[in-house]
């Protein structure tokens, strides 16, 4: 294979790897969003579907990992190509983790499906709306090679963190007022913490997207307000 044809093949395969990562991200986003919907609406059937779907997410993440390793073995990439393929392997891990979180939230949804919710769920669905926006921006940045979109993810994670803290304060107060609801309150606290961790993984995706596009290694913390101590 001559140099020009080899370059075309490399670009074709990298484009396909990015498409696979974007597909994985969209699958994970849908599962996470539907898991919270199932929790809010106490729909055990939807929750079970999401748990079953996690196998497809895991399979695609493994497929991306294998394709990246095969690409590396064939082309022995350097520079930008190596930066892209190594980052995509990390991105696949973060996106696969979102699918695991969706399964965990779905299990919580099944647990409360036949019980009265201690309060209407408002902030948890709001968290997942912001997470969805964060992931959409990260994936669009990756697809369009527009790093400005990825930078817009970082302040959104501050909002997710604020909502998690607000949920925690509210549920702790409810537990003190109504000790008989401690079990359900703890379950909802775990859901909020799970979504907060999902925000961290999406932030990782945005950081990696910037690295692929610009070659700059940045930390989201430099573009967000300082953490409270």
UniProtKB/TrEMBL annotation:
Cited SUPFAM superfamilies: PhoU-like
Record has Cytoplasm as a keyword: yes
PhoU domain ranges (all copies): 23-108, 124-208
Keywords: Cytoplasm, Phosphate transport, Transport
Location of this chain's protein in the cell: Cytoplasm
Gene Ontology cellular component annotations, sorted alphabetically: cytoplasm
GO BP annotations listed: intracellular phosphate ion homeostasis; negative regulation of phosphate metabolic process; phosphate ion transport
InterPro entries: PhoU, PhoU-like_sf, PhoU_dom
Principal subcellular localisation of the protein: cytoplasm
Subunit structure: Homodimer.
Function: Plays a role in the regulation of phosphate uptake.
Family per similarity comment: Belongs to the PhoU family.
The protein's name: Phosphate-specific transport system accessory protein PhoU
Lineage of the organism: Bacteria, Thermotogati, Synergistota, Synergistia, Synergistales
């Amino acid at each position: 294979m001559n140099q020009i044809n080899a370059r075309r093949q490399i670009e074709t395969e990298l484009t396909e790897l990015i498409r696979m990562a974007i597909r994985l991200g969209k699958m994970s986003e849908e599962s996470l969003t539907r898991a919270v919907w199932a929790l809010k609406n106490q729909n055990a059937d939807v929750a079970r579907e999401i748990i079953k779907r996690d196998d497809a997410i895991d399979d695609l993440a493994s497929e991306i990992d294998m394709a990246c390793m095969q690409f590396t073995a064939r082309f022995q990439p350097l520079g930008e190509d190596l930066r892209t393929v190594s980052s995509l392997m990390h991105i696949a891990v973060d996106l696969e983790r979102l699918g695991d979180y969706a399964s965990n939230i779905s299990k919580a949804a099944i647990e409360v499906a036949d019980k009265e919710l201690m309060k209407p769920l408002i902030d948890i669905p709001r968290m997942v709306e912001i997470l969805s926006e964060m992931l959409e921006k990260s994936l669009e940045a990756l697809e369009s090679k527009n790093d400005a979109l990825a930078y817009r993810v970082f302040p959104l994670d501050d909002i997710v963190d604020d909502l998690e803290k607000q949920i925690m304060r509210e549920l702790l107060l409810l537990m003190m007022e109504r000790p008989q609801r401690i079990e359900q309150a703890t379950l909802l606290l775990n859901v909020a913490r799970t979504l907060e961790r999902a925000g961290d993984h999406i932030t990782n995706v945005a950081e990696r997207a910037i690295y692929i596009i610009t070659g700059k290694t940045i930390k989201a913390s430099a573009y967000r307000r300082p953490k409270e101590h």
